[in-house]
TrEMBL record:
Keyword vocabulary terms for this entry: FAD, Flavoprotein
Protein name: FAD-dependent oxidoreductase
Keyword Iron: no
Source organism, top-level taxon: Bacteria
MF-aspect GO terms: FAD binding; oxidoreductase activity, acting on paired donors, with incorporation or reduction of molecular oxygen, NAD(P)H as one donor, and incorporation of one atom of oxygen
Cofactor(s) this protein requires: FAD
Domain FAD-binding: start-end pairs: 2-335
Naturally occurring in which organism (per UniProt): Streptomonospora alba
Length: 475
């Protein structure tokens, strides 16, 4: 029997499959498309996703294909200087096209042994107390212990489960594509600068070989959202919004997206779970969508592996919904707010001016940047140390870096005292005795996703906390 079927081979699905493989599970990715998508929705990785790649030893391959940018200007496009001394070793946004991110994560999943089948569409599923049966469009039936729907905003898995997806439908639509332009660069730059004084959902930017990425508000909301726009539709809207179509021609690809905002009522139904856009959709303001999905997978992978391997404590798998559902709700709220601030109406523009003034205060600017980049996420682990529930930033140790110790996806006890022990959990938790000038707590217990499960120096407290996340001690 397959351990976990992952329905959907986008960044969330490939990240999840790779995480499951770190624990030796048989992970099968089913992707209905024969070839990876050619269009570029996401343009980069935020701080937390960059940290995730570093924690798994993947960052160098991403850095080789990306460009580092300051983290300012991501809240509703309000340009402010980046805050000083963000709580991270990676205080930048990594500009990298989604097509490259997709490829790198697919390569990673294949490297660690995930099985990837393209051109395989899931059309039905059923489950019982022992596993899940998945029916494919070609008549094949597969059997697995668990199944995770990472199959996008129109998720078949979510619909088959009957999980509610409440929220708001799209009220505005935006056209997005890559095409060549004949207008001179100085003309394009001047027109874009002028239009963006009032219309922030507009942009024309050069890529390479004369190709530009073009973003322009649509006339309305299409009845068939899955149908791509035409080049003539692009030209018409460019003339309406910018007064010129820039001579656009020879499109590579054309797409459309809306501002629908929806959140699945539950992330788990028995042995079937949801992650990424299958669990939440929202406008792309702030560039959070792909990042949110990758971080879902990072939270879920080790928990699902623990369940399959038989050592998961009671409630561990349910903590996936408990932790990630509120994070997505917060992202939906901040994208709603950003969309209002990008409106051309007088009221929202007045609020935008006020928010811009408030962002001149470092505390406000920092708060919003930490929200967008997800480094402010703190899970509710109850009362305790200030670090409890937060992800641990990378720190320099005498023997190297913290994140270098986390490539295997196991728990980690970083012990600066040399007096602690996690002996009963040695098959699930690495115990490293080392010191850091950047860490002002005697010891920390980190979950495989880097969040602090315990901090202190009392062995009895440590032993009381270990079973919460890592199950019973080995006999």
């Amino acid at each position: 029997m397959i351990d976990v079927i992952v329905a959907g081979g986008g960044p969330t699905g490939m990240m999840l499959a790779a995480e499951l493989r770190l624990h030796g599970l048989h992970a099968l990715v089913l992707e209905k498309e024969e070839e990876p998508a050619a269009f570029v929705r996401s343009l980069g990785l935020h701080v937390r996703s960059t940290e995730v790649m570093d924690q798994r030893g993947l960052l160098e391959r991403f850095l080789a294909h990306g460009k580092q940018y300051p983290v300012g200007g991501f809240f509703a496009g309000i340009a402010k200087p980046p805050p000083e001394r963000l709580d991270t070793a990676h205080p930048y946004v990594l500009g990298i096209p989604q097509t490259v991110t997709d490829r790198l994560l697919a390569e990673r999943a294949a490297e660690v042994g995930a099985e990837i089948r393209r051109g395989r569409e899931l059309v039905g599923l059923s489950q019982d107390e022992h596993g899940v049966s998945a029916d494919l469009a070609d008549g094949t039936r597969l059997r697995s212990r668990y199944l995770v729907g990472c199959d996008g905003g129109r998720s078949t898995v979510r619909k088959l489960l009957g999980v509610g997806f409440p929220g708001e439908p799209s009220t505005v639509e935006t056209l997005l594509g890559e095409m060549e332009v004949t207008a001179p660069p100085e003309t394009v730059a001047a027109v874009v600068a002028e239009v963006r004084k009032t219309q922030l959902r507009f942009g024309v930017g050069p890529l390479e070989d004369g190709v530009h990425r073009v973003v322009v508000p649509a006339e309305g909301v299409a009845e068939d959202r899955s149908a791509p726009p035409t080049l003539d539709e692009f030209k018409q809207q460019l003339r309406v919004v910018a007064g010129t179509d820039f001579g656009v021609h020879s499109p590579r690809w054309l797409s459309r997206f809306g501002d629908a905002t929806r959140l699945a009522e539950r992330y788990r139904t028995g042995r079937v779970l949801l992650a990424g856009d299958a669990a939440h959709i929202h406008p792309p303001t702030g560039g959070q969508g792909l990042n949110l999905g990758i971080q879902d997978a990072f939270n879920l992978g080790w928990k699902l592996a623990a369940e399959v391997d038989g050592w998961a404590p009671e409630g561990l798998l349910d903590s996936y919904h408990a932790e990630r559902h509120p994070v997505a709700a917060d992202v939906l709220d901040n994208t709603r707010a950003q969309m209002q601030l990008m409106s051309t109406e007088p009221g929202p523009r007045a609020v935008r001016r006020l928010v811009s003034e408030l962002m001149d205060f470092d505390e406000v600017n920092r708060y919003l940047i930490e929200k967008i980049t997800a480094i402010a996420v703190r899970y509710d682990f109850g009362e305790g140390h200030d670090l409890l529930g937060r992800r641990m930033r990378d720190v320099e140790l005498k023997g190297g870096r913290l994140y270098e110790l986390m490539h295997g996806g196991r728990g980690l006890l970083l012990d600066q005292t040399g007096r602690l022990s996690a002996a009963g959990w040695a098959d699930r938790v690495d115990h490293v005795v080392d010191v850091s000038e950047e860490l002002d707590v005697p010891a920390v217990l980190l979950r495989p996703d880097g969040h602090v499960a315990w901090a202190g120096e009392d062995q009895r407290e440590l032993v009381e906390r270990l079973p919460t996340w890592f199950g019973a001690a080995a006999g």
